[in-house]
Specification:
By secondary structure, this protein is of the alpha/beta class. It has 2 domains: about 5-215, Spore Coat Polysaccharide Biosynthesis Protein SpsA, Chain A (Alpha-Beta Complex), CATH 3.90.550.10; about 215-330, no CATH class. It has 15 helices and 8 strands. The chain has helices spanning about 15-25, 45-55, 70-80, 100-110, 140-150, 165-170, 180-190, 215, 220-235, 255-260, 265-275, 280-285, 285-295, 300-315, 315-330; strands at about 5-10, 35-40, 60-65, 85-90, 95, 115-125, 160-165, 195-205. The protein has an 8-stranded mixed β-sheet with strand order 3-2-1-4-7-6-8-5, with helices on both faces.
Length: about 325
């Protein structure tokens, strides 16, 4: 078989609701020289049947079906099975614009020093309506991306990304320990190996809805992001990365021992607490206890007082009073 220019890598788990427009947006690309790998990760809905119905009509699609192993293992399997030198990530709930692949291939052909390229997004809700976000734009240049790593800004939207397969494999692919933020950890590891950029065009419609991973696992995701930032700082300082071989992250209380110095656990708690103040689900779960720990360690600021009001609006008056009392004691 002739090697395609791009391998499109999509993992699906119970994704039938948005899968058809996602698949059709890939098939509608103006650059059609690709293989489309759709890995069904043990779905219990009609995801596999939908994917196979498209595969029966388009020879570029190959469906890989197996029992559920989770997204990280699925992404690494897709990497291993991809035949093209470039891999385009795609999620089963988003929509590509027709020029996405052509624009990204053209950029990477002209910039051999870049191993990863994303784009900016148009954000939509579950009904395809515009979804307003207060977050900043994704950085256009590698220098801007490194600045955002250091200052907590956005990096890349995973389903917009096209990368060089050999660069990602050389970095060890996706790490299981950073489940639910495996892409963020990968970008931080790749930032020291290759240049990373985003096209300023909005080449993907990124969907937001209550059941997506970032909503259901906000606390675990933000803990992973914070630990990956600590690991990035270790690498930048020329020290070994203690997370490199982990299959799972230890409890936050054990991070000082893992990194070999005091203060890591406290810094992680602070980062996570500040990141979760807008998450209703996280503040109703373990995120609130972490917020109180952060305040007990000296965390203060106007944003935490605004969180008192937010908790009351979320229907959590008792927790609002707890947080106010903890802040007042400081």
């Amino acid at each position: 078989m002739t090697m395609p220019a791009v391998s499109v890598a999509m993992s699906v788990y119970n994704g039938e609701r948005f899968l058809v427009p996602a698949i059709e947006s890939v098939l509608a690309q103006t650059m059609g020289d690709f293989e489309f790998l759709i890995l069904d990760d043990g779905s219990r809905d009609q995801s596999r049947a939908l994917a196979e119905s498209y595969a029966a009509r388009d020879a570029r699609i190959r469906v890989i079906a197996r029992e559920n192993h989770g997204l990280v293992i699925s992404l690494n399997q897709l990497l291993a099975e991809a035949r093209a030198p470039l891999v385009a990530r795609m999620d089963a709930d988003d929509i590509c614009l027709p020029e996405r692949f052509a624009r990204q291939i053209a950029f990477l052909a002209q910039h051999n020093d870049h191993g990863v390229l994303g784009s900016r997004t148009s954000d939509i809700d579950e009904y395809d309506r515009p979804y307003p976000l207060a977050a900043g734009e994704h950085p256009e240049t590698h220098a801007e991306l490194v600045h955002n790593i250091a200052h907590g800004g956005p990096l890349l939207a995973h389903p917009t990304v096209m990368y060089r397969r050999d660069v990602v494999l050389a970095a060890g692919g996706y790490h299981q320990a950073f489940r639910h933020c495996e892409d963020y950890d990968l970008w931080l590891r790749l930032a020291g190996r290759t240049r990373i950029a985003n096209l300023p065009e909005r080449l993907l419609r990124y969907r937001h809805y209550a059941d997506q991973v970032s909503s259901r696992h906000a606390l675990e995701q933000q803990v992973g992001v914070a630990v990956s930032c600590m690991a990035w700082q270790e690498r930048m300082a020329g020290r070994p990365d203690p997370t490199e071989t982990l299959l799972a992250l230890p409890p936050i209380a054990a991070l000082d021992d893992l990194f070999g110095r005091a203060g890591i656990a406290s810094e992680v708690r602070g980062r996570v607490a500040r990141a979760l103040v807008y998450s209703r689900s996280a503040l109703r779960e373990g995120g609130f206890d972490m917020l109180l720990e952060h305040v007990g360690e000296g965390g203060r600021g106007a944003e935490l007082w605004r969180t008192v009001v937010r908790l009351a609006r979320f229907g959590e008056p008792r927790r609002a009073l707890q947080l106010a009392a903890a802040l007042a004691r400081g």
